[in-house]
Amino acid sequence: MPELPEVEVVRRGLAEHVVGRTFSHVEVTGTRAARRHLPGPADLADRLTGRTVTAVQRRGKYLWLVLDEDEALVVHLGMSGQMLVESADAPMEKHAHAVFDLSSASSAQQLRFIDQRTFGGLQLDDLVPAGEREVPTVVAHIAADPLEAAFDQKAVVRRMKGKHTEIKRALLDQSLVSGIGNIYADEALWRAKVHGRRMTDSLTKPALGRVLDHAAEVMREALSQGGTSFDELYVNVNGASGYFSRSLDVYGREGHPCRRCAMPIRRESFMNRSSHFCPSCQRSPR
Q1: Which of 205, 211, 238, 262 sits CB 3.0–4.6 Å from 192 for a disulfide?
Q2: How far apart are CA 227 and CA 149, in angstroms?
Q3: Does the pLDDT at position 104 exceed 80?
Q4: What's the CATH class of domain 4-139?
Q5: What is the location of CATH 3.20.190.10 in the chain?
Q6: What pLDDT score was predicted for residue 233?
Q7: Burial zone of 163 (CB within 10 Å; 0-12 exposed, 13-18 middle, 19+ buried)
Q8: Which of 163, 219, 196 is nearest to 269 (CA)?
Q9: 61 counts as catalytic
């Protein structure tokens, strides 16, 4: 699933291509793509036609297009969702579930929502105050992410320290800190030399802070390289893949030597996923 860097790459691409443009015509053909919009896909298309995009924003892994009249089109990328900006005469993708004709003074363009596995979707939502900014109602419960100006690391560390939970679970808890998923949690923990099963209340506040510092650091590095792509399902709005996968230190490197100590990287099951770590640099808790 796309994590913060991948969603931010998409956000930046959308901001460049669709802000200030109007949806002159909208078709939503996928029922699952509009399942969060209870009146159905036809109603969603009607309500989006004629609307103008004024901004594209993100919090954690959540992405939304700010529309006129204080509403937002929330885009759930799910496992394989893509937002592509293409020429209107480009061949239509097999798994295109929504097509937005963009007003233009020059060539005809479309914004297309493609989702092969159909875990993603589109939702029209109201904007509500959240601190110094407005966010869609469905995003209001999500904590600030490490790349936001509103992120209060000291407060997050205090909350983590007050919990009796594994540090990796805390990193994945979007009500504590948003945007960090399985890939960047593993990478941050390796950089901090902390095993993911260490309990948050057993770690010092400086240690917890270092883990969060490394999470922000690795996500910034991934963002500079277009994010992490393992297949063609994650791409930018122009169809380009990210290449941070070449720089990963532990995630997906089971059996390969640790780049610090040469000990083979291990993988273990974790919350129906996998955790990758160095058994020497990241000692397991007793």
Answers
A1: 211
A2: 21
A3: no
A4: alpha beta
A5: 4-139
A6: 57
A7: middle
A8: 196
A9: yes
Which DSSP category does 268 fall into?
Answer: E
Q: Which segments of the chain belong to CATH 1.10.8.50?
A: 153-277
Residue 273 is among the residues annotated as catalytic for this protein: yes
Contacts of 104 (CB under 8 A, 6+ apart): 21
Catalytic residue selected from 3, 6, 86, 166 = 3
Is 2 catalytic? The answer is yes
Choice among 61, 112, 159, 253 that is catalytic: 61
**For residue 142, what is the DSSP state?**
S
DSSP 8-state class, residue 251: T
> What's the rounded Cα separation, in Å, for the pair 242 and 234?
8
Structural contact between residues 54 and 72, judged by C-beta atoms closer than 8 angstroms: no
Task: Identify the architecture of domain 153-277 in CATH.
Answer: Orthogonal Bundle (1.10)
Q: How far does CA 252 lie from the centroid of its chain?
A: 19
Summarize pLDDT for 144-176 with one digit per residue, the tens: 999 999 999 999 999 999 999 999 999 999 999
For residues 19 and 235, which has the higher predicted lDDT (pLDDT)?
19
Catalytic residue among 2, 5, 41, 136: 2
pLDDT at 117 over 90: no
Kindly state the tokens that stand for 210.
């270092």
Of 117, 133, 158, 273, the active-site residue reads 273
Q: What is the pLDDT of residue 265?
A: 98
DSSP code string of 95-114 = TEEEEEEEP-SSS-EEEEEE
* Mean pLDDT over the full length of the chain: 93
**pLDDT tens per residue, range 3-16:** 999 999 999 999 99
Q: Do residues 24 and 204 lie in contact, with contact meaning Cβ atoms separated by under 8 Å?
A: no
